[in-house]
Amino acid sequence: MMLHAPSKRRPAIENVEGGVDVVLATSIGNGEDLGPAVRHAFESGKPETLVHQLRNFAKKKEIEIEELCKLHYEDFIVAVDELRGVLVDADELKSLLSNENLRLQGVATGSLLNLEELLELYSIKKNVSEAMKTLKVRTFYHAVKILDLIEKDYIQNTPLRAFKKVIEKQIPTLKKHIEKKVCSEFNDWLVHIRSAAREIGQLAIGQASAARQREEEKRSRQREAIEQSRFGVVGDSLYSLDIELIDDDSVLEFDLTPVYRAHHIHTCLGFKAKFHEYYYKNRLMQLNLDLQISSAQAFLESHQPFFAQIAGFFIVENRVLRTAGELLSESQVETLWETAIGKMTAVLENQFSRTDTTSHLLLIKDFVTLLSATLSRHGYRAAPLIQVLNSSRDKYHDLLISECRKQIRDILASDDFEQMVIKKEYEYNMNVLSFQLQSSDTVPAFPYVAPFSSSVPDSCRIVRSFIEDSVSYLSYGGPINFYDVVKKYLDKLMIEVLNAALLSMIHTGNIGVSQAMQIAANIAVLECTCDMFLCQAARLCSVPLRLVKRPNAGLAAKAVFKASQNAAYTALMHLIDSKLDDHLALLNNINWIADDSTENPNEYANELVVFLDNLISTAQQILSLEAVYKIGIGALSHISDSIVVAFLSDNLKRFTLSAVVGIGNDVRVLESFAEESFQNSGLIDLNKDRSFKDCLIESRQLVNLLLSNQPENFMNPVIREKNYGALDYKKVANVCEKFKDAPDRLFGSLSRGNAKQDARKKSMDMLKRRLKDFKLPKLWKLILRFHPRSFKRPISSSAFMPTTIINPPSWHRPRLAMSKTRRPIFQISASLTIYMSDHVDQLLLVTVSL
Predict the structure, then answer these.
(1) How far apart are CA 178 and CA 382, in angstroms?
(2) Phi–psi pair at 741, nearest 5 degrees
(3) What is the spatial distance between Cα 626 and Cα 687, in angstroms, rounded to a whole number?
(4) What angle do CA 254, 256, 262 make, to 5 degrees?
(5) Where does the Exocyst complex subunit EXOC6/Sec15 C-terminal domain start and stop, copy by copy (predicted)?
(6) Rounded Cα gap, residues 255 and 193, in angstroms
């Protein structure tokens, strides 16, 4: 058994090695890294096994290669033989092509020689044609040269006298003939150049327009670069070097050869001065014809051909001045230009005075600025044209503002002044984002109810168009820095048109509370757009935004809109008070002499709560918290005042305790609503000293006083300051006179009454009596009348507020009243005496009981 043990274990080892060989072969076949396997073999101390496996794998691959080679050996031999045959065929084809090429070259050599001769003949023919043409053109020049030579050299040496006389006689005739022919050609040129002048001018003005467009694009790139540099982003594509070599003379091609020829021949003939005068007179006549305006066609349609014709004329004259020697002088060109500029300015002033459409003025102005730029490039002084445009600046903007006024008036007339409902995203982009009216950067869910009405984005579109039109008119020809001018007219539009139209809607329009509230909200939104419009104007005028955002650099319209908001709120409060008065009119339906009270509030109170709830909720949607606070304070204060006024009304002769209890219930309902709405609306975050509930304090204190068991405590300064500080003496006196709780019956003293009611009645009677004795206005008049010198400074009636009345002290006896510290001023009655302290600014009123 021991001898066979190793033989039993070998298959297992071989299987393991076989498995390792398969794994190794797979790794090598997949191109995997064998480094980890080699490292593992050396670390485990068995590299021989790995080497053995690699050798086995190499032997297997060698065997596979040998078998493959044996299998395809014959195919390899056949392929090599075929390749050798292809090489032999290629050499044969190459030699064949070489022979054919040589044969073709031999045949084509003669044809090539013939072709070269033909091209040379064509060149000779072209040169001969040009020479003949040149000879024809220069015939008069050679004739003049020959005549000159005959006169100077040959006529004197002529032996035959008769022939000499004939020649002398014919020379002037020939010169006149030559002059006549040259003048004929020159006259043809005059006709041609006048007809071509318009095209020349249009082409030159088109070049000026293209140059302007390039300048605008360059400025746009500069603005973009400046804006990106502010945020630290600089793009390489924003900076580029444009090199454009434009030869104006090569672009504006027109032939002056007839002029040069005529000038030279006339000079040779000795008629130089005559030709100069002839040229100037004819060109002046043509200019006068060009300066005539046809009345059969509107100036808007004829102004471009008119100005293009003049531009072409002076471009030609500038070329003649520079290239034709002494044919024209600078003074003559200046005279022509003065004639033209005077006529053009007169025409422009006349047409501008008759034009009443901004678009027509803008079209004419734009073309005139191009004309000015074109003529300036050719050396002419075009400043008078620019001055005409500047003088019409105010008229243009007045017309533009007038058009905007009409558009805004129509927009406001068609607006229902309800919140704008936006249903689609493109509408949101067009009406909100384009004017930066969004309240947040996130796109809201649709439909979106905006805090403004439809007239706001429509008005913003008009203002934006106004800015663009204003910049378009002031650009290219006006002042270099015209931002201040645009700002001035923008302020004028915003204040005198938009703001005035809104105020007119508020003061003269037949609008309700919700509409007035929406107008106030619209004004607040338009106030916020002032900065956006100013930035737009700055961008169009190429003014850095940092200059616009400086303090005190904004539009004056912003402060005007702020003031208009206050006017809108005032008008809104008047409308709200009017609506409240309609509901408060139901106070007249209250039974003021009811014997029985109820716990339910009166009808008007419920209607007031409903109206106020709707008012506050609507205001929260479109107005700021500050505005909501003002509206709530004003409405509740008006309600409280109206309740007090109801007690003071002359129509109310008497009221009972039950009526006061009913009014108390009404005030309680209003107080509950005021407190709840003040907290729920977020107004508590404003940290105001006065809440909605505080607005009802006067009516609440008056009701509390009338329901008090001891109303005479009102005369106690401490209690009054604490519980009745909002009440006025005179009002309390008038109200208390009407308060008669006990029924007036015959022999009322015999009826049995409630002791508690009797005590309240006695206290109320005491209050009435004490208030009746305290006559503030009469007392003040008497003091000033009898002792005017007792006061070193005026004392207002506030010095006689009830808080200065105190209970009689122990020193009210007559002997103490004449003491050094206090002296009597005037005794009104037996129950009231006025004392003055030694300090004249302290006045003490002492009540002396009988």
Answers:
(1) 41
(2) -75, -40
(3) 11
(4) 160
(5) 385-738
(6) 9
Answer whether residue 15 shows pLDDT above 60: no
Q: What distance in Å separates the CA atoms of residue 427 and residue 744, rounded to the nearest whole number?
A: 72
**pLDDT tens across 328-360, in order?**
899 999 999 999 999 999 999 998 888 888 889
Is residue 306 within 8 A of residue 198, CB to CB? The reply is no
Helix (H, G, I), strand (E, B) or coil at 726: coil
Residues in CB range of 381: below 8 A, 6 or more apart = 337, 341
Phi, psi (rounded to 5 degrees) for 240: -145, 150
Contact status, residue 775 vs residue 815, Cβ threshold 8 Å: no
Local confidence band at 412 (pLDDT 50, 70, 90 cut-offs): very high
* Beta bridge partner(s), residue 422: 448
Distance CA 390, CA 396 (A): 10
pTM of the entire structure?
Answer: 0.64
Average the pLDDT over 692-704 and give the result. 91
CB 204 within 8 A of CB 311: yes
CA distance 623 to 616: 10
∠ at Cα 294 (293, 300), nearest 5°? 80
Residue whose tokens read 């746009």: 220
Place of tokens 């050599």: 109
Q: Is 833 helix (H, G, I), strand (E, B) or coil?
A: strand
Q: Which of 263-267, 446-450, 781-785 has the lowest mean pLDDT?
A: 781-785
How many C-beta neighbours within 10 Å does residue 624 have?
15
Query: Which H or E element spans position 537?
Result: helix 513-540
Residue 65 CB neighbours (<10 A): 10
Cβ burial 523-534 (10 Å sphere, 16+ → b, else e): bbbbbebbebbb
Structure tokens at 773: 């004795």
